[in-house]
């Protein structure tokens, strides 16, 4: 087994409408717990002594809050890198994420997930910030897209997560 640090630049689809069209699974999830695991780089299988290329990942159990699009089996966990060249995003227990997945083996990161969002961004009527309104508009657009083709706005990014701050 070889433990490597796989570095690659983020190469994202140009917009969320393209992400929607390329995805088979689009979910709003809430992270239950986060652990760390050595996984096969391509398949997300647990590494063994015979695995050729292993990388460390954050691995999270989650609860599906809303399904916007689904074709095929859902992953039992979602995984992300650490954001140091692997385009990963922090997985935080209790936080919400919107994930765009091609299949159940795909990892999430800056290019195919939005979050972390706190509960207030979805449920608290007194939480009146531009960010909260942007998140609500994003979720509303995903709900509409699940019924008919529509343009999906940019994913709102919490400060410090891909925002350049």
Structure commentary:
The protein has 165 residues and is α+β, with helices and mostly antiparallel strands. The protein has a domain at 16-117: Beta Barrel (OB fold (Dihydrolipoamide Acetyltransferase, E2P)). It is built from 3 helices and 5 strands; from the N terminus they run αβββββαα. Strands 3-2-1-4-5 form a 5-stranded antiparallel β-sheet. The relative contact order is 0.20.
Number of beta strands: 5
Major sheet details: 5 strands, antiparallel
What share of residues is helical?
A: 10-25%
pLDDT < 50 stretches: 1-8, 159-165
State the CATH class of the domain at 16-117: Mainly Beta
**Under the CATH scheme, which architecture of the domain at 16-117 would be assigned?**
Beta Barrel
Give the overall average pLDDT. 78
Query: How many helical stretches?
Result: 3
Radius of gyration: 16 Å
What gross morphology would you assign?
globular
CATH topology of the domain at 16-117: OB fold (Dihydrolipoamide Acetyltransferase, E2P)
Query: Multimeric state of these chains?
Result: single chain
Helices and strands, in N-to-C order? HEEEEEHH
For the record, give the distance between the C-alpha atoms at the N and C termini, rounded to a whole number.
Answer: 37 Å
* Helix/strand class: alpha+beta
Strand order of the largest sheet: 3-2-1-4-5
% residues in beta strands:
25-35%
């Amino acid at each position: 087994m070889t433990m490597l640090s796989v570095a690659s630049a983020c190469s994202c689809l140009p917009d969320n409408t393209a992400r929607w069209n390329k995805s088979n699974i689009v979910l709003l999830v809430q992270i239950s717990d986060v652990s760390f695991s050595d996984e096969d780089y391509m398949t997300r299988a647990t590494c063994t002594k015979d695995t050729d290329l292993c990388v460390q990942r954050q691995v999270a159990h989650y609860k599906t809050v809303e399904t916007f699009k689904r074709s095929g089996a859902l992953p039992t966990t979602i995984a992300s890198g650490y954001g140091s060249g692997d385009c990963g995003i922090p997985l935080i227990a209790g936080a919400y994420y919107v994930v765009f997945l091609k299949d159940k083996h795909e990892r999430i990161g800056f290019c195919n997930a939005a979050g972390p969002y706190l509960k207030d961004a979805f449920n608290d009527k007194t939480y009146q910030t531009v960010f909260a309104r942007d998140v609500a508009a994003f979720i509303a657009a995903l709900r509409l897209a699940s019924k008919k083709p529509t343009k999906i706005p940019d994913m709102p990014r919490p400060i410090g997560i891909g925002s350049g701050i």
